[in-house]
Design brief:
203 residues; 2 domains; alpha+beta; three-stranded mixed β-sheet; 8 strands
Length: 203
């Protein structure tokens, strides 16, 4: 442990926001996202299953998203397969079953990798950046962090430096929370159950 002195600091913890910044922790909902990678597949199989080599996401309430790996040999498949957070070793066969439901010919394809990480949702489903208690922050990308984190990270850096090009459409937005929410998403499991029910019944 040590001490670091800085004129400005940026909190960019997103789904890993902790008790160290309680005001921010009350405003982001950490949600585990689970992903698998298949073993290398034949090129003709990849060409048939992913002919346009694009990222795919479905329209369910509890979504699945998938794409070809950068080398074009595997399918990376992710989503939410449990009501509560779990271990990637347990989520892997569940994700594989969902993958095989979309691509039946992959029912016998093996999983080579399985991992997880936390994304951060917000109560208004918007990303947020700003300044609070002397700290700058950018977080709450609601599953779009690959694009939004880079963009807002650059903008909050420009704001720290006082540059006018740091202005964004997200400036000045209220960052809402809910009564009694302290950062532990106790409501997540029943919410997932409800949305899975809606997905099954097409609502």
């Amino acid at each position: 442990m040590g001490t670091v002195a800085a004129r400005n600091a940026v909190v960019a913890t997103n789904g890993y926001t902790s008790r160290l910044t309680p005001w921010l922790r009350r405003r982001v909902i950490p949600i585990g996202s689970y992903i698998i990678a298949t073993e290398p597949l034949a090129r003709e199989v990849m060409a048939r299953l992913m002919p346009m080599d694009r990222i795919v996401s479905d329209t369910r309430k509890v979504v699945y998203y998938y794409r070809a790996s950068p080398d074009g040999r595997r399918i990376l498949f992710g989503g939410r397969v449990s009501h509560n957070e779990t271990d990637p070793r347990l989520s892997a066969p569940l994700l594989h079953a969902e993958l095989a439901g979309i691509f039946p010919e992959l029912a016998t394809a093996r999983v080579s990798h399985s991992w997880c990480g936390f994304v951060a949702y917000t109560f208004d489903e918007l990303a947020h950046l700003g300044q609070r208690d002397g700290l700058f922050y950018a977080m709450g990308y609601c599953g779009s962090g690959v694009g939004m984190a880079g963009y807002l990270g650059m903008r909050i850096g420009q704001q720290v430096l006082g540059r006018k090009e740091g202005t964004t459409a997200f400036d000045g937005l209220k960052f809402p929370t809910r009564p009694f929410y302290l950062g532990n998403p106790w409501f997540l499991a029943p919410s997932i159950l409800y949305y899975r029910w809606r997905d099954r019944h097409g609502r």
